[in-house]
Design goal:
With 412 residues, this protein is α+β, with helices and mostly antiparallel strands. The chain has 11 helices and 19 strands.
């Protein structure tokens, strides 16, 4: 601790934290090279250009006083983990913004996030988010996964993960708790809006392999209709999308149905790429920064499905990047939306890798449709044809008739 105090006297912790953030987030406050490793309270720190912004008057003596008191007086010395305390301090700083989508990710949470976007991980197959009351909720269960088979639905609130209450739990923390080795059990306490009481659901974790894009063909009056199912916008989406489009072109269908139901989103550039398949030039979305400045994302390539009739399926599990695509196609009058109102996530997060396998997601802007609609929170995208799926009992294994797909086929 004396070593740390000597460093603090020479440098000031505020400078360290500002330098760390400015380097990893690309903020241009000067050139900094920062590496921080905490072991037994003895950090290895290299800092250049040490002056923090003068307008931020924060005295970190309170931080160190608290650290000292906890380290010296806490009863159970085995529970004191300097790395967890360090990460926890950063998590608390980020959480103070009050935005559930702006989070600092310790190494395990960062690893899980990258695995999911890569298309393979071990868990139960739930895409998580927050409802309008900032409660941890299900954006969508992934088709064919343990969560899907157990009857977990979009908008279900996750009250507990095992015995841990989810109140004030961040997304990465929740993901870390739910993920685990294949074959291991986990219990989730779920509350479905409209029910009187929550219920416990016991699941067995499995390897979740998520293929971004699949395509099938429906025969209607001896005419082929292509149904492209887009499950997420991940690292392999563009490659899989191109393969699907090749299959569509080879089949020469009379129309296309783009199924974005239960698609929780992902990379923004993937949304622009997919929307460009159907739009002949023009705007896809508008990104608005905190200072009010705007940047317009436009069609960035020559699409191959510009003329085929198109219907898009959405529901309350359609969020983020899938809403960008659906919103652009609706605003540009390229397609009708069929289904139920979408989730409503109208913000953009930038992700950055930080030292030691950590990372951060930061809400940097909000996105708007080409007609400047912000579909955040309770707003969502409203379908042109509103049609609910039949309700089934949570314990039922029978799949209800897909009336939304049936309606889309009728429109084509």
């Amino acid at each position: 601790m004396k070593i740390m105090r000597n460093i603090l006297q020479k440098l000031n912790l505020f400078t360290i934290l500002i330098a760390l953030l400015t380097f990893t987030l690309g903020w241009q406050l000067g050139h900094r090279d920062v590496n921080v490793e905490w072991k037994n309270y003895q950090p290895s720190i290299k800092v250049e250009n040490k002056e923090p912004p003068k307008e931020i008057g924060v005295d970190f003596k309170l931080f160190w006083d608290t650290w000292d008191l906890v380290s010296k007086k806490y009863r159970d010395k085995t529970a004191i983990d300097s790395e967890k305390m360090f990460y926890g301090a950063i998590q608390g700083m980020v959480a103070s913004l009050g935005d559930p989508y702006t989070v600092f990710l310790p190494p395990e949470a960062q690893k899980s996030t990258k695995e999911e976007l890569g298309g393979s991980f071990s868990g139960v197959g739930i895409e998580l988010g927050f409802d309008k009351d900032k409660r941890l909720s299900v954006v969508a269960p992934l088709e064919g996964t343990p969560a899907d088979r157990a009857g977990i639905k979009p908008e279900d609130v996750i009250v507990k993960i095992e015995e841990k209450d989810t109140l004030n739990l961040s997304l990465p923390e929740a993901v870390s708790l739910i993920r685990g080795p294949k074959g291991s059990p986990i219990a989730l306490t779920i509350f479905t809006p409209g029910d009187s009481e929550p219920r416990e659901i016991k699941l067995i974790r499995d390897t979740i392999i998520v293929k971004s894009v699949t395509v099938k063909f429906e025969n209607v009056n001896n005419r082929q209709v292509a149904v492209i199912k887009l499950a997420r916008f991940g690292e392999k989406t563009q490659e899989e999308w191109n393969e699907a489009v090749s299959k569509v072109l080879a089949a020469a269908p009379v129309g296309v149905i783009l199924d974005l139901r239960n698609d929780p989103g992902g990379f923004l550039d993937g949304a622009v790429y997919v929307a460009s398949e159907f739009l002949d030039g023009g705007e896809v979305l508008i990104q608005e920064s905190g200072d009010g400045s705007r940047y317009t994302y436009k069609v960035n390539r020559q699409g191959k499905l510009l003329k085929l009739p198109l219907v898009v399926l959405i529901n309350k599990g359609s969020a983020s990047a899938s809403e960008i695509v659906a919103g652009a196609l609706q605003d540009r009058k390229r397609a009708k939306l069929v289904g139920t109102k979408s989730f409503g996530k109208g913000t953009v997060q930038e992700t950055e890798d930080l030292p030691g396998g950590t990372g951060i997601h930061i809400t940097t802007a909000r996105w708007l449709t080409p007609l400047s609609r912000w579909v955040n929170d309770t707003t969502g995208l409203i379908p042109d044809v509103l049609i609910e799926m039949p309700k089934t009992e949570a314990t039922s294994s029978a799949k209800p008739e897909d009336v939304q797909l049936k309606k889309a086929l009728e429109l084509l």
